[in-house]
Amino acid sequence: MTLPTMPALTAMARAAGEGLTARGLICAAAESCTGGLIGHIITENAGSSAYFAGSAVVYSYAAKEALLGVDHATLTAAGAVSPQVARQMAEGARRVYNADVAVSVTGIAGPGGALPGKPTGTVFLHLSARDGYSRGAHHVWPAGRSGNKLLSAQAALGLLQDYLDSLA
Predict the structure, then answer these.
(1) 95-140, pLDDT tens digit by residue?
(2) Which of 73, 95, 130, 136 reaches 20 to 30 Å from 28, CA-CA?
(3) Crossing angle of the two packed helices 145-167 and 6-23, in degrees rounded to 10
C-alpha cells in the first residue's frame, strides 16, 4: 500500500475547501488517533478559515466526554475505538463548532494498543452533517503509526468529499 503524501492530502483538503466555500458551508473535525493531523492538513491551505471552524483533539475518555459530549456509558460499553463513539464525536464537533458538517476519527494507530477484535491499525470514522446526512467508515490500516495516521486523515477527507459530491 502506498501512503499518501502531505502535498496530496493538502490538495484533497483544498478541493474539499473549494466545495465547502461554493456551498457556503463550515466544517469541523474531532480527532483522537490522528492527534490534530486533519486540522493541520486543512489549515495548510491559505484561506481555510473561511470554511474550517476547528478541530478538537480528544485523546482521553475524559476529553471525549467533556469537550464533545460523548456518552460515558457508550465509551465503557463499546470502547473509544468504536463506530458509536466515532458518530458521537462527529456530532459533538458539529455542535461545539456550530459547523454544517464534521468528520471524526478514533482508532489504534499502533504500534501497540491492539484489543481483542481490534488489531493495530483499526479506525472508525464518521461524518455528521446538519442536513441529516450521516456516514461511518471502518478500516484496518497495514502501516506503522505515522502511516496509519496519514491513511486515516485521507479517509476523513474522502468522507468529506463524498458528502460534498452528494450535494451536487
Answers:
(1) 999 999 999 999 999 999 998 899 999 999 999 999 999 999 999 9
(2) 73
(3) 30
Q: How far apart are the C-alpha atoms of 159 and 168, rounded to whole Å?
A: 15
6-167: in CATH 3.30.390.30: no
Which alpha helices (DSSP H) does the chain contain, by range? 6-23, 37-42, 61-68, 72-78, 83-96, 145-167
**Edge-first strand listing for the sheet containing 101-107:** 52-57, 27-31, 101-107, 122-129, 134-140
Count of Cβ atoms closer than 10 Å to residue 22 Cβ: 12
Distances (CA, A) of 51 to 59, 84, 144: 24, 27, 31
Are 108 and 121 within 8 A, CB to CB? yes
Q: Is 104 helix (H, G, I), strand (E, B) or coil?
A: strand
The residue extents of the domains of the chain are 6-167
pLDDT of amino acid 1: 79
Contact call for residues 11 and 45 (beta carbons, < 8 A): no
